[in-house]
């Protein structure tokens, strides 16, 4: 019960910091009504409401995950942070394939299907993001392209 309340306070503090960061965003004169400031403020408001619910109505007996699950969550979180840092220097395809492969392996621990899933997701998402949505993604490191 206490852990839910503590987590609710942490969520509210994080949401307030998120909203404060949203107010620092510079907007241009050509922005839409739900622009670069409004949407993060709305998300922060929803997070504050969720934190309040956790404080006011905590779970009587929360079920904590076992050690194996906590390790899997930590591996997934570290993978996602490493992915974010690897995107710019390594391009889209390589980090996405590795990240998707690791996460796929966590879901079903078979190496070959996980590697193929990572590769297929990497190529498929690149095609969607680059050619259908028109995002300016770099497929591989810039040094490879000359």
What would you note in describing this structure?
The mean pLDDT is 90. The radius of gyration is 20 Å and the shape is flat. The protein has 2 domains: 2-56; 67-142, no CATH class. The termini are far apart. The protein has helices at residues 2-22, 38-56, 67-90, 93-107, 111-132. Helix 1 runs antiparallel to helix 2 (38-56) and helix 4 (93-107) crosses helix 5 (111-132). It is mainly alpha-helical and 146 residues long. It contains 5 helices and no strands. 69% of the residues lie in helices and 0% in strands.
Protein traits:
about 150 residues, mainly alpha, about 70% helix
- Helix segment tally: 5
Order of helices and strands: HHHHH
User: Largest sheet at a glance?
Assistant: none
Please state the overall shape, judged from the principal axes of the Cα atoms. flat
Oligomer: single chain
What is the C-alpha radius of gyration, as a whole number of Å? 20 Å
Please identify the structural class as seen in this structure: mainly alpha
Kindly estimate the percentage of residues that lie in beta strands according to DSSP: under 5%
Can you describe this structure in just a few lines?
By secondary structure, the protein is an all-alpha fold. The chain has helices at residues 2-22, 38-56, 67-90, 93-107, 111-132.
């Amino acid at each position: 019960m206490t852990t839910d309340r503590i987590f609710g306070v942490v969520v509210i503090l994080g949401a307030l910091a998120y909203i404060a960061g949203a107010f620092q965003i510079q907007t241009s004169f050509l922005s839409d009504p739900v622009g670069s400031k409004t949407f993060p403020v709305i998300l922060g408001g929803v997070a504050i409401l969720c934190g309040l619910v956790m404080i006011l109505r905590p779970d009587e007996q929360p079920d904590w995950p076992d050690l194996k699950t906590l390790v899997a969550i930590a591996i997934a979180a570290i993978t996602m942070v490493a992915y974010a840092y690897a995107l710019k220097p390594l391009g889209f395809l390589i980090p996405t394939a590795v990240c998707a492969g690791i996460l796929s392996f966590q879901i079903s621990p078979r190496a070959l299907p996980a590697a193929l899933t990572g590769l297929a997701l990497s190529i498929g998402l690149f095609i969607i993001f680059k050619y259908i949505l028109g995002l300016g993604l770099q497929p591989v490191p810039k040094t490879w392209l000359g």
